[in-house]
Amino acid sequence: MHDISSLIRRNGYVLLLLPAVALVVTLFVIPLGGIVHTSFADSAGWTTSHFRKVFTTPIYLRIIWNTIEVALLVTFFCAIIGYAAAYVINELSGTRKNVAMLLVILPFWTSILIRTFSWSVLLGQEGLINTLLVQIGIIDQPMRMLYNRTAVTIAMVQILSPIVILTCVANMSKIDDTLIRAARLFGASPWNAFRTVFFPLSLSGLINGSILVFILCMGFFITPALLGGPRDLLIANMIEQQIDQMLNWGLGAALAVIVLLITLAAVIILQLSTRNKYLDEQR
Amino acid sequence: MSKISFKLILLVATIGFLLLPLAVIIPVSFVDSRFLQFPPEALSLRWYKNFFGQQSWHNALLNSLTLGALTTVGSVVLGTLASLALVRGQFPGKRVVWVLFLSPIVVPQILIAIAIYGLYLRLGMVGSITGIAAAHTLLAMPYTILLVSEALKRLDPDIERAARIFGATPWRTFWIVTLPQLLPAVVTSAVFSFFVSFDELVVTLFVKGTMNTIPTRVWSDLRYEISPTIAAVASLLVSVTLASMLLIEVLRRRSAGSDPVREN
Amino acid sequence: MIKSLSLRRASMAIALLASAAFFTPSELSAKSLVIAGSGGIAQDAIDKAYDEPFTKDTGITIEAVEPWGLAKLRAIVESGRAEWDATELDGPALILATKAGYLEPIDWSVADPKNILPAVAKRPFAFVPSVYSTVMAYRTDKFPKAPSSWVDFWDVAKFPGGRALQNTPQLNLEFALIADGVPKADVYKVLATPEGIDRAFAKLTKLKPSIVKWWSAGAEPPQMLSSGEVAMSTAWNGRITNMKKEGRPVAIIWNGSAMNLTYFSIVKGTKSKREVEQYFASYLSPARAAAYAKLVPYPGFVPDIEKHLDASILVDLPTAPANVAQQFEMNDDFWAAHLPALTERWNGWLLE
Lengths: 283, 264, 352
Prior knowledge:
The structure holds three protein chains of three kinds. Chain A is mainly alpha-helical. Chain A contains twelve helices and two strands. Chain A has helices spanning 4-39, 49-56, 58-91, 94-105, 112-123, 128-136, 149-172, 177-185, 190-218, 222-227, 235-245, 249-282, and strands spanning 41-42, 45-46. By secondary structure, chain B is mainly alpha-helical. The A-C interface holds A 57-59, 62-63, 117, 120-121, 124-127, 144, 146-147, 225-226, 229-231, 233, 238, 241, 243-249 and C 69-71, 74, 93, 96, 100, 167, 212-214, 216-217, 220, 223, 227-229, 339-340, 343-344, 347-348, 350-351.
C-alpha cells in the first residue's frame, strides 16, 4: 500500500514532530552536548579520567547506589498508594471524582521547598505527629523521625504520589467497564475480573506513572538535603557540589552521564519486562 | 457495604496524607513571629499584609503564574503534535526520537541549567520571560508526550478511519473524533505542565536574570531566613483554588438541578 | 503645497535630531549596574542602606540578581557577555575565580580615594563589604550551666542534647581541633599536616553519633534550635541575634567562633568597571554602613561606624573588639587549596 496519499500522511506526521524536535535540539541537545563533551575532556584533550575517578572512588559508587535505593523505595510506595487511590477515585461519580482530583492537585500550589520544610515541622521531636502519638499514649517518648531515610521517603512519597494518581486516573477513565461487567457475567469473581481484565488494561498508566516518579527521584536534591541524614545525600547533591562549589565540571558531567545511563536503562528494562507480559496480550 | 467503606477510608487516608503539609502551612501563615512556628503562639495577619504590601512578592507570583500558563500551552501543543507523530507516523529512528524527548527530565537539572544558561547568555535571552517559558516547556513536554501517546495507543483507529471514509478532513477528524477521546490525558498533562513550571527551581535560578518566581524567592530566603510570607502565599493560592472550584460546582449543580434526568 | 510639506518634514526632522541630541547624554548617564548577591533579607537591607542612597547620589541604578555562583560566573566570562558587573563571593570562591581569571583588578584610587580602609578589606581583586561569623549557638533553657567553648560542644555527657553542624569540612575541622585542645592561633599550622587533618576527623568521629543534622541552608539552624530538634548548633550570627531579639531562649558563644569575610569582585568583561568602583566607594560612608549593620549584624571594616551605633547593637557585631579577640579568621587560601580533596574525604567520612 505504498500509494502517494500514505506517503504524504507519513511525512505529514513527521512534520508534526518538527516543533518539538526543534525545541529539544536547540535548548537541550546542542548545549548539553558541549557539557557532556567536558566529561571526556581535560586541559590536555580527550580523557576518561573523570569516569575512572567515579568508578574507583567508593564514595561515588555508594552515593549512586543510595540514590537508586531511595528511588526504588519511593517509586514502590508511590505506585501502591497511587494505584489504590486512583482505583477508588475512578469508581466515584462526576462531582465526587472532581472533588477528589482537586484535593489531589491542591498540594502542588505549595512549592516543594515549603512542603519539605513543613514536613520538618510535622515530624520533629515537638512536632504535630510526635505530640499526637504521645498524647494518645502510643509512645511515651517522642520518636526521632527527622533527618533519616524515613523522613526523606515520607516527604518524597507525599510530593510524588499525585503523579501516579493522575496518570492512573487518566488511564482508568478510558477503560470500558462493559468489559468488566462481561467478565462478571461469565462468572468471574470480582477479584478475578480485576486481575484478568481491569489490571492488565490499567497497567500502562501505572507503569508510566512509576517511570516518571523513578526518573524524578534520580534528580531530587532539595528534600534529601533538608530532611535526610548523611546517608541520604543523593547523586544530584554531589553533581551540584562539584559544579557550583568546585568548578569541577568534568567530574560533575561524568556523574550526570552515569545517572542518565542508569535511568534510561531502568526505564527500558521496566518497559520491556512489562510489555511482554501484558501489553502484547492486549493487542 | 463494608468493602465500600474500606475503599473510602483508604481514599480519605491517602488524601489526608497528601494534604498534611497544608495542615501546617495554613496555621503557620497566621503566626506573629518571624519563624515558621508551629503551633503558632500568637496570631496575626502581618504576613498577609506583608504579601499584599510588597511589590516583589506580587511580581514573583505574577511571573510564576504567567510562566505556568505559557508552559502549559507550549507543552500541550508541542507534546500532543509530537505524540501523534510518534504513535501514528512511521519513520526510521522512532526509538531514538522517543528517548530524545524523554531525556530532558532524566538529565540532572543543574546540567540543563548550565547548558541553557550558556546559550541564553550568547543570545541575550537571560531574564526574558519567553526564554524561561521555553526552558520550562522543555522540562514539561516529556510528561505530555508520555501521557498523550499512551492514550493515543489505546485509541481505536477504526473510528478515525470511519470518520475519514465519511468524508471528514484530517483536521476535522482530529477535532471531533481524536481530541475528545484524548481529553483526559491532555487535561492531565496540562495540569502537570503547569505545576512543573510553577515549581521549577534549578533551571529558573540560572536563566531568570533579575526577575523572581515564587520558588526562586523562597530559595534565596532559605539561605538566610525563611519568611512566613510564603505560607501566606500558599494559603491564598489554596483557598482561591478551593473557592473557584466550589463556585464551578455550585453553578454546575444549579444547571444540573434544572435538568433532573441527567443526574443519576 | 509640496514645498510647505517638505518644509514641515524638514523642521520635524530637525526637531527630532535636536531632541535626540538633548536626550542622548542623559540616557547615557542613567546607567545601571547588575550586581550578584545572596538575595533574601540581606538584599533587602543592602537596598535600603546602600543602593537607594547610591542611586540618589549618582543616578546609577543597581539591579540585584541572585544567587551568585561559580558555575554562573564561569559561563558569563566564557560567553563574553557580562551579564553581571560585580558579584559577591566567599573566600575560597574568590581564590578560585581569581586563579581562573574571571575577575578584574580593582583600582583602589577610585574605590577608596581617601585610603581609609584597613588592608584586610582591600584585596587586589576584591573589596570586603561585610563580615559574618560562624558561631556556636545554644538553647539557654536546656542546660543549668551555660556552655562556653567547643570543648563543651563536644561534651555530650555534661551538656546532653542533639547537635548540628554544617555539611562541609570547612570550619568544622577547625572547630574539632580547638575542641581537641589546639590553640586557635595554631589551627591552620596543625591542619597543614596530614596528621592534623586525621586528628580533626578523629575528633569529629567522636561527636558524630550526637549530630542530629548536617545542615546545608542558613535558615535551618535557627529553625532546629527553635523547634527543640537540637540543643546546640553552629549557625550564622545574624539569625541568632534576631532570635534573641524575638525573645527566644538562645545565645551565642563567640569563643572560638570563626570570622568569615564576604567579598565583592568586579566581573571580567564588564563595561562599567569605574562605576562599580564608585559603588564600592559608597560603602565607605560610616552612616550607611551603620544603617546596614542595624538591619543585619554583618558590618564591614569602615572606620568610625561605632559612632553611629548604640552599644546594644555593637555588642552583637562580629567586629566588636571583645568578639574579635575571641574569634579566629577563616584561612581562605587553605580552603581554596584543599576544599575539593577534603570535601571528597568528608563525603566519604559521613557515609562511614
